[in-house]
Amino acid sequence: MIVTVLLGLLVWQIVGRDGPSPGESAPEVVVLPPTLPPPTHTPEPTRTPTPRPPPPTPWVPTPVVHTVESGEVLQYIATLYEITVDELMVANEMTSTIIHSGDQLVIPGLFENPPTPTPESGTPRTGYFTYKVQPGDSVISIAYRFGASPEEIFDANSLTSSSLLYKDDVLQVPVPLFSDDVEASSDLAPRVTNAIYAAPKLLHPGNAALVARQDPVNFRWLPVDILAPNEWYVLRIWTNQGDDPPTIWTKATSHWMETDMAPVEGGSREYFWHVTVVRVVAPTIPGAPRELESASLTSEERRFTWQ
């Protein structure tokens, strides 16, 4: 009974004391959602920067030293280490071929602690660097120095063989077949410009050498100094037949070219080679291509015949 009365009062309060007029429907009851608590702010997690690996420890070469024994002559020692007498004399600043028992001779290109080859990461590819033109430069000389193709430099910069270059022009230089380590090395050293080493001194193979086709070719040269993390020896090997081996970027002072590049049996092929030092520099504008600098004079050009 009490429940019925309470329900009647509730209906009376909703529709009004007098009830709805004839033909008028009862007003709609709107049920409001419950009050929501204010949103709470979830702070974004603090991003921890990825630690950058420390620069590699510079390689300090320790040359091999030969102690002369009684009866030895320079020709014997040079043959023993597969170098020439001239190279042995230059490395030891000798003006005479006379040697004595107990003399100590530095053997050029050989070290007690050869450098650890830089591991390559990623797939070799073509990368685009920028290069600021210096007095006397031409597209041919730039390609020659960095192991690039003149035709690709022409195409990348919309140039023709008759185009003129001016000091401080900035060119795109497509560099073929380099590893990710070469590109990343620009972040491992401060930006240094205008530091020029002497030209690398080539050791082996000798100029106009003959190499048996079943033997790999060992290229060797003297170090110019302790290279910074972003400095690389660039070994360029080429032929006049258009199918050149890839350009080599390395921290070492030697490189083996295996026999898969040798001519077919009964044939012969003439190769040319030189070495230079190149510096990879971080761009001044974030996101721009990295820059290339010549860090040494280019070595002499040598040739050999594989047959």
Report, as a whole number of angstroms, the end-to-end distance. Answer: 120 Å
Poorly predicted regions are 1-17, 118-122
**Helical percentage:** 10-25%
Rg? 37 Å
Order of helices and strands: HEHHEEHHEHEEEEEEEEE
CATH topology value of the largest domain: Immunoglobulin-like
Q: What is the makeup of the main sheet? A: 6 strands, mixed
What's the rounded overall pLDDT mean? 79
What is the count of DSSP helices, taking H or I runs of 4+ residues? 6
- Whole-number total of structural domains: 2
Oligomeric state of the chains present here: single chain
Number of strands: 13
CATH class of the largest domain reads Mainly Beta
Question: Which second-level CATH architecture of the largest domain applies?
Answer: Sandwich
What structural category arises from helix and sheet content?
alpha+beta
The global form is globular
CATH superfamily of the largest domain: Immunoglobulins
Describe the fold and architecture.
By secondary structure, the chain is of the alpha+beta class. It folds into two domains: 63-111, LysM domain (Membrane-bound Lytic Murein Transglycosylase D, Chain A); 125-306, Immunoglobulin-like. It has six helices and 13 strands. The chain has helices at residues 2-15, 74-80, 85-91, 139-146, 150-156, 180-184; strands at residues 63-67, 104-111, 125-132, 170-178, 202-204, 209-211, 217-221, 231-238, 248-250, 254-257, 269-281, 291-294, 302-306. The strands form four sheets. Strands 6, 8, 9, 11, 12 and 13 form a six-stranded mixed sheet that branches. Strands 5-7-10 form a three-stranded antiparallel sheet, with no helix packed on it. A two-stranded antiparallel sheet has the order 1-2. The termini are far apart. Mean pLDDT is 79; it is low at 1-17 and 118-122.
